[in-house]
Amino acid sequence: MEKFPMTLAGYQKLEEDLKKLKNEERPAVIQAIAEARAHGDLSENAEYHAAKERQGWIESQILELEDKYNRAEVIDVAKLDGDSVKFGATVTLIDEDTEEEKVWQIVGDLEADVKQRRISISSPIARALIGKSVGDSVEVQAPGGARAYEIEKVVYK
After folding, report:
1. Is 131 helix (H, G, I), strand (E, B) or coil?
2. Whether the predicted model's global pTM rises above the 0.85 cut
3. Per CATH, the architecture of 4-75 is what?
């Protein structure tokens, strides 16, 4: 069974999502099925069929999240330090062409969220940054062409 890295915050979020599905969503859909059954003929009961479909989706989500939860390798980023880039690092980059500053945290694949400034460990930017240190220049092959960045700061929080 292959393990995959995950920050403590990502693991806790996964745990919350799993609890919500099991303790709120599952009982709610069971209640909806019971109410739809009470309406009579199930063959033409759209509410019943919709609730059964929802139940199938919830059960598949629970199985998927349980698998991810059990295979997660939790890394407590707060216990890491140094000026080289590793999993969990929050890296401040300066675009060498535009002087624009970008800040990214390198997280597991399941936690990646560009809007939250969190990139996957398997992304091109993260792969280029791993092992580099403050002051190093890195070149990243992006869809729009190669981009050069200088690592300004590395923080573990």
Report:
1. coil
2. no
3. Orthogonal Bundle (1.10)
> From CA 28, how far away is CA 93, in angstroms rounded?
46
Q: What's 14-78 look like in SS3?
A: HHHHHHHHHHHHHHHHHHHHHHHHCCCCCCCCHHHHHHHHHHHHHHHHHHHHHHHHHHEEEECHH
Over the chain (157 residues), the average pLDDT of each successive run of 10 is: 88 95 96 86 82 95 94 89 90 92 93 93 92 93 86 92
| Residue boundaries of the structural domains of the chain | 4-75, 77-155
Q: Which residue has the tokens 């349980």?
A: 66
- Distance, in Å, from the CA atom of 154 to the CA atom of 114, rounded to the nearest integer, reads 18
Q: What CATH number labels 77-155?
A: 3.10.50.30
